[in-house]
């Protein structure tokens, strides 16, 4: 009943002085409402040891137990005892903050160890950690491309916003190749001639759950003398013998110049990184504003992430269970006639094709069935391909898959959503 209470009861003073620009902001948001893509975040309390169960706090303050089907903590590592143990032990030992940027007192030993661990994971000379995967792409791509004179960037059409921002911030010329289209990529490489080239792409594409032909892209890169930058955000921890991702699974990790990943999804923590040659990483470390001018990840987070990476290097049980549960979820949804997009990965998109219906379906699932799946609308996916993106984990059991299937079927019927997904190429 002390400072925090006083803070909450402090009078609201915004907009009381100077010019009132509030109308601009309200209008911008009302445009989103008009386009039916105003976002509402469910207020979720995660409970250690209970994943994928969680508590949903409604706007009126009441709570309901729910099953989370859209977490990117794909393997539940955020609640793994070794990971939680590493974080709490390090927080007790070192405190909670990093204390500064990497350059100014923030270069703590757990962070240095984590970078070694990540370099080893991907078989590279060096690793460099950023405060998020987003920043690692934005800072990594922009800095690398900027440092190569006259660099042309070739970027997959479905690349994540963080990569697009990296390309934009580089100021370099770019060409977008059609998604996973090797012929188009080759055409652009030929057109580019002798100038330096950087190909940026992902391994697992997060919204469609499809996979890049990494080896074939490397063949083209070799043939036309291009550098390669691969985002393995939706694959690290999840694929490959030691959890290094699809490039490891496909035996082509050594052919990629820079591999980027996140510590926030398969590894269940927070932070992002790039790995590559010592020369490239030393340059990014020296020139990337998004690395230099921000406080480092706290030591406890670095220790937790390292524990997670180390654990998943040696344990395959979670990866195998993850794939099994994803396959079973897809099979159950397909058997119920729901329009599941065929994927070869753990990502299970169920197509709706309309922003309003998609949000209504998500609301219905949460309110009527205690199932939480965030709707995915434009601009994350193209208009008309709105969907529910389901991410099974090793901890979703057969009974939960059955409940999910029944709830989706009832929701589709209640809202009159078409079961045929022919518009999306769904069988
Ligand atoms: N790359 C891809 C492909 C992503 O989907 C995301 C986040 N969803 C990121 C990078 C950013 O990672 P982070 O969440 O660690 O910032």
TrEMBL record:
Comp. bias (Basic and acidic residues): 1-8
Natural source organism: Methylobacterium radiodurans
Domain Aminotransferase class I/classII large, chain residue ranges per copy: 65-408
Keyword Transferase carried by entry: yes
Pathway: Porphyrin-containing compound metabolism; protoporphyrin-IX biosynthesis; 5-aminolevulinate from glycine: step 1/1
Lineage: superkingdom: Bacteria
Keyword Transferase: yes
Entry-linked InterPro entries: 4pyrrol_synth_NH2levulA_synth, Aminotrans_II_pyridoxalP_BS, Aminotransferase_I/II_large, AON_synthase_class-II, PyrdxlP-dep_Trfase, PyrdxlP-dep_Trfase_major, PyrdxlP-dep_Trfase_small
E.C. no: 2.3.1.37
Molecular-function GO terms, alphabetical: 5-aminolevulinate synthase activity; pyridoxal phosphate binding
UniProt entry keywords in alphabetical sequence: Acyltransferase, Heme biosynthesis, Pyridoxal phosphate, Transferase
Cofactor entry: pyridoxal 5'-phosphate
Protein name: 5-aminolevulinate synthase
């Amino acid at each position: 009943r002390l400072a925090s209470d006083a803070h909450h009861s402090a009078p609201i003073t915004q907009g009381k002085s100077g010019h009132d620009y509030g109308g601009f902001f309200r209008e911008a948001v009302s445009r989103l409402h008009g386009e039916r893509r105003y976002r509402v975040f469910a207020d979720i309390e995660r409970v250690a040891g209970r994943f994928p169960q969680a508590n949903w706090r409604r706007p009126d303050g009441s709570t309901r137990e729910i099953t989370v089907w859209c977490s990117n903590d794909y393997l539940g590592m955020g609640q793994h005892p070794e990971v939680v143990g590493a974080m709490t032990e390090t927080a007790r030992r070192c405190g909670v903050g990093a204390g500064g940027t990497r350059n100014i007192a923030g270069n703590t030993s757990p962070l240095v160890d984590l970078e070694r661990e990540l370099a080893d994971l991907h078989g590279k000379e060096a690793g460099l950690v950023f405060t998020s995967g987003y920043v690692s792409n934005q800072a990594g791509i922009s800095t690398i491309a900027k440092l190569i004179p006259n660099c042309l960037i070739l970027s997959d059409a479905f690349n994540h916003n963080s990569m697009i921002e990296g390309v934009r911030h580089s100021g370099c010329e770019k060409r977008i190749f059609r998604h996973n289209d090797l012929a188009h990529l080759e055409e652009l490489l030929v057109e580019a001639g002798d100038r330096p080239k950087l190909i940026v792409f992902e391994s697992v594409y997060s919204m469609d759950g499809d996979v890049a032909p990494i080896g074939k892209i490397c063949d083209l890169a070799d043939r036309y003398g291009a550098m390669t930058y691969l985002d393995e955000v939706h694959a690290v921890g999840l694929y490959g013998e030691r959890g290094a991702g699809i490039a490891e699974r496909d035996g082509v990790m050594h052919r990629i110049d820079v591999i980027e990943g996140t510590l926030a999804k398969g590894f269940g923590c927070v932070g992002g990184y790039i790995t590559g040659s010592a020369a490239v990483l030393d340059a990014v470390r020296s020139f990337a504003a998004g690395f230099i001018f921000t406080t480092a990840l706290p030591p406890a987070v670095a220790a937790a992430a390292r524990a997670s990476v180390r654990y998943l290097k040696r344990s395959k049980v979670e990866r195998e269970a993850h794939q099994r549960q994803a396959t079973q979820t897809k099979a159950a949804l397909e058997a119920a006639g729901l329009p599941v997009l065929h994927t070869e990965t753990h990502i299970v998109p169920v197509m709706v094709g309309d922003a309003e219906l998609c949000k209504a379906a998500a609301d219905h699932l949460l309110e009527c069935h205690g199932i939480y799946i965030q709707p995915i609308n434009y601009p994350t996916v193209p208009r008309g391909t709105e969907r529910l993106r389901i991410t099974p984990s090793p901890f979703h059991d057969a009974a939960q898959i059955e409940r999910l299937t029944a709830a989706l079927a009832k929701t589709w019927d209640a809202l009159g959503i078409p079961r045929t997904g022919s518009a999306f190429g769904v069988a």
